[in-house]
Amino acid sequence: MIRRYIGLETAAAILGAAIAVGGCNLVSQSLNPQFMEVLGTPFAPIAPGTAPFVLIRNINMTDQRVLFNFEWIPAGTLASANFGFNVSAGLDGGVLVTCPVSQMTLGDLDNPTATGALVIFDDNTRQEIPPLGRILREGIDYFCGDVVIFAAVRDTSTVGGYSTIYGVIDGSSQPTQFAGPNTFKLAEREIGELIAFGIESFEQALAVP
Amino acid sequence: MLSRCVRRRHFIGFLALLAAPVACQDALNPQFLAAVGQSQSSLPEPGSSVVLLFVNETVWTAEVDFTMVPRTTIPEDWILGMAGKSYTPLVFECGVIQLTITGGTVFVIDAGQITPEAVAVLPASPLDEGDEFVCGAVIKVFLYQGWDASGNPQWEISTETVLD
């Protein structure tokens, strides 16, 4: 028992010294996944990071169902594409769009004052949520590899009691090592294989000049 | 004297180990953490995701029906419309404990008439977190033309989980 205690203590000393001297990356690569997670290595990425996507997420933070509709300019086109998520209270849904994504908004790119989200009540009546009111642009508001979040929230300061907000998670400084699956790198590889077999992106199919 | 020195060395090393999680986190992703803080304060903490990569290998427009069971709320039914020969990568935050592909429809056009045709799901059993997928996985959902036991063509959906 004493021997074991000393062994652990020595291992801790060596590991601590290794981190202090060698930096975090070296140590994190040499440990097993469970232990790495203890040391702060995340299990899976939050943002695409170096994978060539922007993740557009829609989060319904209200107590009612919300229909989100967002529009963006897909890579390689001058057209726009739009996509919708009908999301229950408290849930979320997102989609990976391929870089470059020059601009996007919740609602209509041609008319930023149009609403991009509807509250759907239990009796199926619908109520428009005030528009986000702005177009987000790559290189200014977000970059390739980021997560752009559009969320519907309760807001007592508005007439209808709901509003939409957005946020951006910077993917560029996300760790590159993960204890579990590297989600978006896997998606990049799998999508690359699909394209090689002649399967096109949903964005190309949706793009409307 | 030597023994005391060794104990002190161990103690300093152990303190360094205790400090490592915070120190490493800051060293690896300072801007990332800062960016989260810059987001709208009312947004929830971001989390990892599961990617559902739907692939329609047929030339026809199609729909795929699926049900997700989140850990915290009631099951949610989804319908995804897809163009022919296209893929759609949907992303859901981790916390999904079960995914079931419940069916689908292929809209075949013949002589100007659109005929909806049902899709067989292979296998029909649900995908469970921890067994068929984990947080961070990519789950591929293929729609294609296969063959039934009698050798007749049928539309089929099958799934494959990618972890590495």
Describe the structure.
The complex is a heterodimer of chains A (209) and B (164). Chain A is an alpha+beta fold and 209 residues long. Chain A has five helices and eleven strands; from the N terminus they run H-H-H-E-E-E-E-E-E-E-E-E-E-H-E-H. Chain A has a domain of 117 residues: Immunoglobulin-like (Sandwich). In chain A, strands 2, 3, 5, 6, 7 and 8 form a six-stranded antiparallel β-sheet that branches. The longest helix of chain A is centred in the first third of the chain and has 21 residues. Chain B is α+β, with helices and mostly antiparallel strands. Chain B folds into two domains: 37 residues; 114 residues, Sandwich (Immunoglobulin-like). In chain B, strands 1, 2, 3, 4, 5, 6, 7, 8 and 9 form a nine-stranded mixed β-sheet that branches. In chain B, a hairpin with a 5-residue loop joins strand 8 and strand 9. The radius of gyration of chain B is 24 Å and the shape is elongated. Chains A and B meet through helix 1, helix 2, strand 1, strand 4 and strand 9 of A and helix 1, helix 2, strand 1, strand 3 and strand 4 of B. Strand 11 of chain A pairs parallel with strand 4 of chain B.
